[in-house]
Sequence to fold (317 residues):
Amino acid sequence: MSKRVLLAAPRGYCAGVDRAVITVEKALELYGAPVYVRKQIVHNKHVVESLEKKGAIFVDETDQVPEGARVVFSAHGVSPKVHQEAATRQLKTIDATCPLVTKVHQEARRFAAEDLQILLIGHHGHEEVEGTAGEAPEHIKLVDGLDQAKSIEIDPKRPVAWLSQTTLSVDETLETVGILKERFPQLQDPPSDDICYATQNRQVAIKQIAPQTELVLVVGSTNSSNSVRLVEVAKEYGAKAAYLIDYASEVKDDWFEGVETIGVTSGASVPELLVKDLLEELSRRGFSEVEEIRAMEESLLFALPPELRKDLKAAGK
Fold:
């Protein structure tokens, strides 16, 4: 019997990433290069390098964009302060924020308008967290990990609610919320789950595969929160080893010792081409039998940002 690969499905691009990448590509087609992009449009090395070759210029802040130029905001979202800075510099903005992140921003504004304390579960320094926290900085406190959930203090006399970054581990977020509710029984839930459907689905798929494997390979970049979580979930659910790689060329010979079954998946910002490259590399190493394990179907699509749609329509595209 040949060595085999269990290929997770769903994997790779989610609707928000697909929309964000197409937004930059269409903007380059319509307006011509350069088109500036604040931060990485999505957290994937290959995608960013490909867009750079087409004429996208990635910057850290809006003050690096020439006055009056066109700038795309990344899928992770930005705070109102960034919108104000862009307006001051008369930048033409295209907001490629994932609609699921926008939903969390709206929840933050609503809770703040009701004068609630907001405990935001997420990773310190992550762009999405900075954007959400910027919606209501006086109301939001960040809870980064279980230890902070056990130690964070709030005003017991005021109502409190929680929100979360969209790309976290489902299990760890539930555990964090459990700790917070034990400490603060009055803690209110968001109107709907904040962790994005794609993050959850990719975790569900790898949970099914991990117990059947000796090794799991996750295609994704180290700054991609949802990709890093997939490695953690694979290990928690029984994979003896799990590694995050950007490219097939990064696999190491010693990973394969005693391995008969490999699980393969990819983060929500990873193009399928990189998974195909990995499967070819694994086939060369004797892992030629590939079985796709499908946890569920995904069919969600998001419309392009309205400001871009308007200009495409006017140009007859």
